[in-house]
């Protein structure tokens, strides 16, 4: 049995310990805001926070994060939209939207450790893939949220 915290709630998953966190979140916790894109750690659609760091949940087994604190897009902000989510709306970032929860989680982790990042810092921290090519609006939204 693997124990850690998801969105402030303790979880005890009775699953193969090697199960990727992505599938535990989606299938056992019904937290489907975390998306499956590639399953190989490249696209970033599955990004969540583990102990405050942006992590690709398809690449982390539930056994590896025993005792950790996981946050998903569903709990990025408890009472109202997170500033990153507000900036995403203001800049009308999404096109198809599929990758955006991972993008927002990556952006929120970046801004938590580096307010007002430069374009170079944004580009180096946000390596998620958007097949619609919304990158200019993503950058602008991160700049807005960082102000
Ligand atoms: Fe995890 Fe693509 S689904 S990086």
From TrEMBL:
<keyword id="KW-0408">Iron</keyword>
<keyword id="KW-0479">Metal-binding</keyword>
<protein>
    <submittedName>
        <fullName>(2Fe-2S)-binding protein</fullName>
    </submittedName>
</protein>
<keyword id="KW-0001">2Fe-2S</keyword>
<keyword id="KW-0411">Iron-sulfur</keyword>
<feature type="domain" description="2Fe-2S ferredoxin-type">
    <location>
        <begin position="1"/>
        <end position="76"/>
    </location>
</feature>
<keyword id="KW-0560">Oxidoreductase</keyword>
